[in-house]
């Protein structure tokens, strides 16, 4: 399959790109101590460049210390230039090209501030300070040139200081930098002129801009966005990098869009702006297949296409597409667990990926083993398959034992919920990859202690996942009470008025599934509604409740199910007095679905047999503790690299 439009060259000033694929700047959390980068950052970028990505954009680089929170790179000290030169040299050595985002964070990185930081917003900056920041952008541009970058990008989107100055929703100044359209643009146009004056004439200059200013009390009009870009183009910008989102409203979901937003959700918004501006456009928005990427170029919707998480999920995305094998691409599924939630999770040193636990660890490669081992993998879910694939590529002999008649585990069931079909597709893809790699698979095989003894493995990985254990609710075994698995497997088909007990990630998705089938759904959650949803997905749940007519109540402890009657206590806390009020309630339902009680499947007998035989045993994923798939594939990688 050819993707001729995607792989057509394009020239921007003095830079000729061999294709239209750009790795957009994304926070990877790999910067160390604000001013240093290690092999992981270099390996991350080299992998994409080596695979043929036309241009890599290094994530936000702070042009001064005031907004420079700990997880971002600086671009204002001499050592910053030295560190970044190591990166550009490595990327150039494999034929790649690098750009960098020049950035002032405004209020957005405040949650990561330390004592060295200072909040700078349209309300706090003096005229003199704004003019100083303009000069600091120029200095950052000069330093980017010295560090060997092939292009620069001015970040004027996503609620960072330039965007805050641009939008009437955040800029309430009454001086020459606020009020009228021209005054709100002044700061940004001055930055554009300063940056252009400090880079070579033949160096491309990108500017990241939101294609829609939305969901605030005051917003820019479409015409203002168009006029702003066109005047910036006259002042030296070569490419409009069009994105979407702000950190002050629901629109933040558009910055790292989860699977509730379909691939290409932003294409027409970008095209609407492209038709009215005088410079080429780079667009983003869940472009996760080469087919879609080629289409937006072929149809003239974009001139360059930003494929970010698609290249995190598979660093060889571009190479596989160019070679005509899109079916081999490990596709991003928009789960946001590794690329967004890991940013704010202190347990992670860098971002990662449910589909690709090697993300940000590319520099380690897959070293071949000198002592091949037979590794028995018990369980063929996402974790088990990932472990087998890595072991096989390292030269081991993995054998997957799966109790059911197909590989995929709970990902197959997860994909039955509305908008989650990509989960099922991911599980099916992994099963095909297992087959492609020639991995031995034993389906319909329940492993016992005797099986382990008979197989005589060198090591064992226990990846048997989790299962349902009935919660301590009186009447939970009643005639009209079902488990989530019974519903997902089609063994039960609740209709009418349905109570879903538990409204975390599983309960919320099952509620949507039932509502989509025509049920009237009420969710009763012991904790906060949506308590274990990813951050951006949790923002979607309330609108989805409205869409589907779901009633979701938090802090409700179900105590008894008596026929069609559900008895529960609801706790309400007064926000002012903190006084807790507990009310006993009852409600009538046609049926009840239990979405709690998921726990690791017992594996003590398997571990005991391994210990008896002197065989090392590793427990991963839900078999270790019921959690998200991110942990299953990550632990699979870690174990497979240790063996």
Summarize it:
This protein is of the alpha/beta class and 643 residues long. It contains 19 helices and 26 strands.
Please characterize this protein's 3D structure.
With 643 residues, this protein is an alpha/beta fold. Helices cover 32% and strands 18% of the residues. It has an eight-stranded parallel beta barrel, surrounded by seven helices. Helix 8 (290-298) links the parallel strand 10 and strand 11. Helix 14 packs parallel to helix 18. The protein is globular. The protein starts with 9 loop residues before the first strand and ends with a helix. 51% of the residues are buried. The mean pLDDT is 96.
Give a quick set of tags describing it.
five-stranded parallel beta sheet, 643 residues, eight-stranded parallel β-barrel, globular, alpha/beta
How are the elements arranged and paired?
Elements (H helix, E strand, L loop, with lengths): L9 E3 L2 E3 L3 E3 L15 H12 L4 E8 L10 E2 L3 H16 L4 E6 L23 H20 L4 E5 L5 H6 L14 H17 L7 E6 L11 H13 L4 E5 L23 H8 L6 E3 L6 H9 L5 E3 L2 H5 L3 H6 L51 E5 L3 H13 L2 E5 L8 H5 L6 H16 L3 E3 L6 H7 L3 E4 L3 E3 L12 E3 H5 L8 E5 L3 H12 L3 E5 L10 H14 L2 E3 L2 E7 L2 E9 L6 E9 L2 E4 L3 E3 L3 H10 L3 E3 L9 H14 L1
Parallel strand pairs: 3-4, 3-11, 4-5, 4-6, 6-7, 7-8, 8-9, 9-10, 10-11, 12-13, 12-15, 13-14, 15-26, 17-24, 18-19, 18-24, 19-20
Antiparallel strand pairs: 1-2, 16-25, 21-22, 22-23
